[in-house]
Amino acid sequence: MPKGSFEPTIIFFGLTNSLVTFQIMMNEILRNLINIGEVASFIDNVIVRIEEEKECNEVVEEIVKRLAENDLCEKCK
Description:
Layout lengths: L17 H12 L1 H5 L3 E4 L2 E4 L4 H17 L8
Antiparallel strand pairs: 1-2
């Protein structure tokens, strides 16, 4: 590009593999929670698997924080 490289700020949903790209991004954001088995992510669904309510609240707060930090949660701010 004449004025620098082009970096989109949104996913173009007409593109092939955009869902795969979003899934990879979610996996990166929640990587350590997924690795220890507390969270499962599929596209725009995040499932929390915790037995105690107190622990669940902490995990949900961490997820919301990470989504807000990556501009994926407008109502979280």
